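RESIDUES AND SHAPES:
===
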Amino acid sequence: MEIDNNLVENAAMYFFMASCKRKDVDEREWLSDSFDRVRGIKHEDLFKLLPANWPSTEANFKSNT
């Protein structure tokens, strides 16, 4: 597998990881859970997967699945 050096993608991941740290969210748990949910989520609900919203919307996800 080739190493990806795309600066925009790297910056986006850095932003998400920094957001997790700022909100005291486990980065690996958030990333794994977000990858699991992203395929089945409505476009207008993608904001729920952001680290700032993720813990507070856990109950919403469980009730919608």
